[in-house]
Amino acid sequence: EEEEEEIEGAEDERETLTELVERQRIEAQGERRRRSAVSAESVNPEHLKNQPKKVINKSEDSKTKIWSRLQKNFLFTSLDPEVAKDLINAVMEKSFPAGEVIMKQGDDGDFFYIIEEGEAHIFVNKDGVEVKVMECKDGQSFGELALMYNAPRAATVKAVTNLRCWAVDRQTFKLTLMESTLNKRSRYEKFLESVPILESLYSYEKLTIADALHSKQYHENDVVVKQGEEGHEFFIIEKGSVVFTQTDNKGEEVVVG
Fold first, then answer.
1. In what order do the strands lie in the sheet with 92-96?
2. Beta-sheet strands, E only, within the chain
């Protein structure tokens, strides 16, 4: 069966994340009284190949559960298979009793967490008052913002029940995302050079697009977009071909391209 593989620009569906990023920026500004600056860690891409792979023994069932949880976070949905495997191998299990503070607003970030079992609440200090802003349950994650932006923790997270989590340490988190980004850029860079509509873009702008792309496959006769529907995605054909049709005034479908 003939397949068509298309790359679609990632839809911005992360309103909650955006709100938390903005909150983190504001909180980071407040931390300047005791921090001179928030600086990014330097990671040399050339050293990625020489980094030892962390492997924490776990069952195949645990690996399956971890991957299922990771795929619910947009950061990991487009990981290369080998990169995903390395990440799963490095994940460790952490448990917290009910009432324990897992992370505190203003502290440095050390781990990214995915809840396997239990419930945690996220609080933000606003004008000296601790306000609950989110509840996290099985399958949900937290803690990525401080690791991504090398900023203080944007919120405090407390275990409401006994909590069992999968945790990714800071270095593994950053190296995994960087390796995935570099692999994606390597795959799509030359391809994007051949796309006519992108010819006027600078190289760095094309790399930005490459970072946002993910592959999607369609089978022969599948409908990719439908006339009259609201558009949310931009497609670039990587392999295969498509037919464009329009419904005319008589209600008949006509091939137009």
1. 92-96, 163-169, 111-117, 141-142
2. 3-9, 92-96, 101-103, 111-117, 120-126, 129-136, 141-142, 156-159, 163-169, 213-219, 235-239, 245-247, 253-255
Residue 110 in contact with residue 124, Cβ under 8 Å? no
- Closest by Cα among 148, 174, 144 to 73: 144
Across the strands, what pairs with 94?
A: 165
- Say yes or no to pLDDT of 161 above 90: yes
Q: pLDDT of 108-123, one tens digit each?
A: 989 999 999 999 999 9
Q: Which of 246, 187, 240 lies closest to 218, judged by CA?
A: 240
Please give the backbone phi and psi of residue 23, each rounded to the nearest 5 degrees, phi first: -65, -40
**Going along 153-229, which residue ranges are E strands?**
156-159, 163-169, 213-219
pLDDT in tens, 61-76: 999 989 888 888 777 8
- From the number of C-beta atoms within 10 Å of its C-beta (0-12, 13-18, 19+), residue 221 rates as exposed
Q: How far apart are CA 257 and CA 246, in angstroms?
A: 9
Contact 121, 134 (CB under 8 A): yes
**CA dihedral angle for residue 154, residue 29, residue 146, residue 121, rounded to 10 degrees:** 0
pTM (2 decimals)?
Answer: 0.58
Tens digits of residue pLDDT in 215-236: 778 888 888 888 888 887 778 7
pLDDT band at 46 (very low <50, low <70, confident <90, very high): low
Q: What are phi and psi of 180, to 5 degrees?
A: -65, -40
Residue 243: which of 222, 228, 257, 226 has the closest Cα? 257
Q: How many CA atoms lie within 13 A of 190 on its CB side?
A: 3
